[in-house]
Amino acid sequence: MGLRLKFNLVLVLVFAVGLALSGAVSRHILEANARDEVVRNADLMMGAALAVRGYTNKQITPQLELQLMRTFLPQALPAYAATETFNALREQHREYSYKEAVLNPTNPRDRALEWEADLIHQFRNDAGLTDFRGVRETPTGKSLYLARPIRIADQGCLRCHSTPDAAPASMVRLYGEANGFGWKHQEIVGAQIVSVPMTVPLAKANEAFRTFMTSLLAVFVLAFVVLNITLSVLIIRPVIRMSKAADQVSTGNFDLPEFTVTGTDEIGVLATSFNRLRRSLEKAMRLLE
Prior knowledge:
four-stranded antiparallel β-sheet; Helicase, Ruva Protein, domain 3; Beta-Lactamase
């Protein structure tokens, strides 16, 4: 096995290990960054929903107090306002969603699906759980969801959700007496859930990963070629020339020119030593003659 082959085998082995480690670390970092981006988007959506709820509750509903006594207006409810705002957003971004899922809602569209009901029960079973994050498969790919419990902290909510008799008659006429009643103070009745797609951030992470690995491979190929040329010019060729010269000298042929020493590196030192050995051997042979 030649020196060049040994060198290349070691070089390829080192690169393969480095490529595998770099690939694993970079993919982990890129996917973590993509997930962090999705989480930030989910937090932003949840914050926007809370802002809409707060604005509606503080600045819209009080202005309609007298009208609400005569006619029930769902548009004046914070939950309804937040849901409608994000429904408008979904006209352009269908993959994003916001829902105030409730086990026993007044509006049927807010009824919790099976997986949403499981989240609500988790909040009910763990009073210290303030939010929950997870990933689920959807028709458009993986989606990250962020959920927070809906707790009846305001006694005023029970005016519409305790019993049909206590609720505004206009609300009962609109939604009926079958749903949205029997709620209790401090009870967790549902969950705010935002869903953000992971497809685009993960696709960007995969594209960045492929670009990084391709660049790394290109750098290795370039380094491999340059190192082989350097090895050939600075080491392999001089050693081969010395080997052939040594064979000639060993047979008594001293007509070969001496090696030209062009540097002080190891090959230059070897060439100097070889020239000295050649001259010494030539003198010894002449003395013997």
